[in-house]
Amino acid sequence: MSDVWSGRAQAFRDSPAHREGPDLDLLVELCEPGAGVKVLDVGTGGGHVARRLREEGCTVVTVDPAPGMQPDVIARAEDMPFGDGSFDVVTCRIAPHHFEGVRKAVAEMARISQRLVVIEDNLYVDEQVEAAERLRDPTHVRCYSEDEWKGMLTD
Fold first, then answer.
1. What's the rounded Cα separation, in Å, for the pair 112 and 90?
2. Where is 104: in which H helix or E strand?
3. Would you say 97 and 121 are in contact if contact means Cβ atoms under 8 Å apart?
4. pTM, entire model
5. What's the CA angle centered on 13, arms 7 and 18, to 5 degrees?
6. What percent of the chain lies above the pLDDT cut of 70?
7. pLDDT for 17 beyond 80
8. Mean pLDDT of the region 80-105
9. What is the pLDDT of residue 2?
10. CATH number of 2-149
11. 3-state SS of 3-59?
């Protein structure tokens, strides 16, 4: 997967759908950003969340499995090299549908965060949409329903 994303890095950085949007604004607001807030941005992609949070004064470390995305740390969300409670906030925007072990990734994010994990992703619609998405994007694993997300976040 990392090779695929490394090859798409510039297009991803330039994508208006990823670079801006009300979902990004809300995610930043939920983080209660400011000086001294330490944030880990998981699956950073083009670094859009990191950029916005840095503009708000946060210290941000980025992690992504794709070297071409130029993260601070190259690692999968399911196995990150940080100690328990290393960050105040952990963010993950529009990436979990690419994780092979989404439950493990969510558990890792919770382990690493001291106070808050903010995850934003596409919700599951139906199997036809999922099949089309897998044809369009070979790195797509699957989207999850609202109930599935509630289950993962309360486990």
1. 7
2. helix 102-112
3. yes
4. 0.86
5. 120
6. 88
7. no
8. 95
9. 52
10. 3.40.50.150
11. HHHHHCHHHHHHCHHHHCCHHHHHHHHHCCCCCCCEEEEECCCCCHHHHHHHHCCCE
